[in-house]
Amino acid sequence: MTSSSSSSSTFQMEYPICHCGKPSPLRKSNTKENPGRRFLGCGNYEKGKKKCEFFYWVDPDPKVKQIEDKIEVLESEKRALHLKCQEMENLVQNLAKENKKLKKKLVVVEGVVVSYKWKSFILLCACIMLWFTRKL
Fold first, then answer.
1. pLDDT tens digits, residue range 58-116?
2. CA-CA distances (angstroms) from residue 45 to 5, 34, 48?
């Protein structure tokens, strides 16, 4: 014979105990400054009894969250700019190397140009002399 048993379990949250010795249930704020923000407070809060000072925000302050989000965005942008700066520095270094190579090539080319100028001058002088010698 087979017996089957069923059991049901319910989730029961254990709230912290306030200074009055009562569980402090989770509540939502209805204030203009903190609408819908959840908090734990004294168990006597809504009963009109004397309550202790137990109070704890469960949700972060939305203003602080906005600031933290902005800081996170700014830090992300800072990292991106840092990477961009590194890329630019690498580019500047590569351009400096290329510039140095081109300057060396320019010196060689200028030397060749000067050599051709002298050769052209000498050739021109030879042509003029030849022309004068044929006239005589």
1. 888 888 888 889 999 999 999 999 999 999 999 999 999 999 999 999 999 999 999 99
2. 42, 17, 7
Decide: 44 and 22 in contact? Cβ < 8 Å: yes
What separation in angstroms does the CA of 24 have from each of 15, 50, 51, 67, 102?
Answer: 6, 14, 11, 29, 78
Instruction: Give, as one character, the DSSP assignment of residue 45.
Output: T
Residue 109: other Cβ atoms inside 10 A: 11
Cα–Cα distance measured from residue 88 to residue 83, given in angstroms and rounded to the nearest whole number: 9
Q: 0.70 exceeded by the pTM?
A: no
Residue 115 has φ and ψ, to the nearest 5°, of: -60, -45
Helix H or strand E encompassing 13 = none
Mean pLDDT calculated for residue range 102-131: 93
Query: β-pairing, 55-57 with 26-28?
Result: unpaired
Per the CB < 8 A criterion, the answer to whether 16 and 23 are in contact is yes
How far from 43 is each of 37, 58, 59, 79, 84, CA to CA, in Å?
A: 18, 16, 19, 47, 55
